[in-house]
Specification:
223 residues; two-stranded antiparallel ribbon; 14% strand; globular
Length: 223
């Protein structure tokens, strides 16, 4: 049988150079797609209020990935490859269990860093008239959001002990700011001529601590 010509043969040195070039290309591509090493603490946050707290507590020392893109509905989030990789590669993951099932599943299957569950920290209250269902929209209450700041600081310090003092100081400053905001809410809403909020989505129940009442736009009488 006649030999089939397959082109010039490569010596071992040439093969080694090609392999090295491929390795560089693959590593560069991966870094461009999923984020490279910046020396910062990588944090994945389930949705914006959590990402905001991480940014305030971590400052320039952290790199935050918000798993919920702007304009997306947090409840209905489905993770893509990039977001799943962000969870897997994060030093810290901050989420609220039960609020985003896809994020809960992604953490259970892929997370390797420290996980902060805001649902365990913010002391969720039940929906009005539904004592068996907790209202996840705790960030409407500045004091509850302030509680999450301390847990985030602890998690960041665990991942980056050298900057523990900075994280603690930032968390303390944020707690003071949110506590002051809570006082402004209470004072500003204490003497409203109207105290009823009509909302189609039951996401404002935590504002009832300021004397407000939240009602749906329609009620149906059952005969």
């Amino acid at each position: 049988m006649q030999d089939i010509e397959t082109g010039p043969k490569l010596d071992d040195a040439a093969v080694g150079r090609i392999a090295l070039a491929l390795a560089v290309i693959l590593s560069t591509t991966a870094c461009g797609a999923l984020g490279d090493s910046t020396g910062k603490v990588d944090v994945a946050a389930g949705f914006y209020p959590l990402a905001w707290v991480v940014g305030r507590v971590g400052g320039d020392l952290v790199s935050v990935t918000n798993l919920t893109q702007p304009g997306a509905e947090p409840h209905d989030l489905e993770l893509n490859v990039r977001e799943t990789a962000a969870i897997a590669e994060a030093d810290v993951v901050v989420h609220e269990s039960g609020f985003q099932p896809a994020v809960d599943d992604g953490i259970a299957q892929n997370a390797t860093g420290t996980v902060v569950d805001a649902a365990e920290i913010a002391h969720l209250r039940p929906f009005a008239g539904q004592p068996d269902q907790l209202d996840p929209h705790f960030w409407q209450d500045p004091e509850r959001l302030a509680q999450v700041a301390g847990a985030v600081a602890d998690a960041l310090a665990e991942a980056d002990p050298d900057h523990k003092a900075a994280y603690d100081a930032n968390a303390a400053a944020l707690r003071a700011e949110l506590t002051a905001l809570d006082g402004e809410y209470a004072g500003g809403l204490a003497h409203c001529e109207r105290d009823t909020i009509v909302a189609s989505h039951d996401a404002f129940g935590y504002l009832e601590k300021y004397g407000l009442t939240v009602e749906p736009p329609f009620t149906f009488a059952v005969e």
